[in-house]
UniProtKB/TrEMBL annotation:
GO terms for cellular component: lysosomal membrane; vacuolar proton-transporting V-type ATPase, V1 domain. Belongs to the V-ATPase C subunit family. Pfam families: V-ATPase_C. V-ATPase is a heteromultimeric enzyme made up of two complexes: the ATP-hydrolytic V1 complex and the proton translocation V0 complex. The V1 complex consists of three catalytic AB heterodimers that form a heterohexamer, three peripheral stalks each consisting of EG heterodimers, one central rotor including subunits D and F, and the regulatory subunits C and H. The proton translocation complex V0 consists of the proton transport subunit a, a ring of proteolipid subunits c9c'', rotary subunit d, subunits e and f, and two accessory subunits. The lineage of its organism: Eukaryota, Metazoa, Chordata, Craniata, Vertebrata. InterPro entries: ATPase_V1-cplx_csu (IPR004907), Vac_ATP_synth_c_sf (IPR036132). GO terms for molecular function: proton-transporting ATPase activity, rotational mechanism. Keywords: Acetylation, Hydrogen ion transport, Ion transport, Transport. Subunit of the V1 complex of vacuolar(H+)-ATPase (V-ATPase), a multisubunit enzyme composed of a peripheral complex (V1) that hydrolyzes ATP and a membrane integral complex (V0) that translocates protons. V-ATPase is responsible for acidifying and maintaining the pH of intracellular compartments and in some cell types, is targeted to the plasma membrane, where it is responsible for acidifying the extracellular environment. Subunit C is necessary for the assembly of the catalytic sector of the enzyme and is likely to have a specific function in its catalytic activity. This is V-type proton ATPase subunit C. It comes from the Eukaryota.
Amino acid sequence: MCNFYYCTREINILTCAFFIKFLLADLSFEIEKSFKNCSSSLDTVPFLFIFKGVNQIDNDLKARASAYNNLKGNLQNLERKNAGSLLTRSLADIVKKEDFVLDSEYLVTLLVIVPKLNYNDWVKQYETLAEMVVPRSSNVLFEDQDSYLCNVTLFRKAVDDFKHKAREFKFMVRDFQYNEEEMKADKEEMNRLSTDKKKQFGPLVRWLKVNFSEAFIAWIHVKALRVFVESVLRYGLPVNFQAMLLQPNKKTMKKLREVLYDLYKHLDSSAAAIIDATMDIPGLNLSQQEYYPYVYYKIDCNLLEFK
């Protein structure tokens, strides 16, 4: 959506610190709410209660991001009109009032794009491309890498003939009418969009920081609940297990797997066969790398690292 990559290191450090001090937030998510009260409303089920809060954050994010991106897109469209070659870009910020003959019943000023390679031909020929062209009325108003923007003044009734003849010599006449009020309105609109974009960016970043924290906490609570539920399903009641958090480096990952397998292989005799064979359990999307004799869930802290 938006480019907040600079937050990556800060957030990764904070998430690691959060794991160290993690404590199940009973009050925030009503984890201990009795399931006897769940019959009246599914919203009181712990999982759904958490998902409801995260879903609200997601909806708010979509609304805020959409508003910001629309604003950014409108500004980029206006900026794009003022960029590019002279054949396509807006000329409003280039030309001036004195470049035109205005409010004349008979005369009109045209803007012509002349390739630099053909400029000498333009100087020699523009007065004879049609009848009633005002002599010495052409000036170079602007130039880019490939072309010159020139003006020329002629009688209104000769405009069509002039355009037709100009195309034969690769001179492109731009359709442009000088309107000071419209040009001023476009400039004010761009300034307004630019100001609004800056005003929205700061609050949006602050909102993202706050709600990333809330969403991440909810996500970790879901992980904790999944560990608990899976452990009960595997090992039964009464509850007699301990959840732990391990953070091995990549070099010791394989060794850690071997040690954990040796310690807990007695808990699930079927895990020995699963390590060397694929596993297909209806309703579960588990691959051979994800199933172990102990309950395991991976937590990736590098949430904002883009590859």
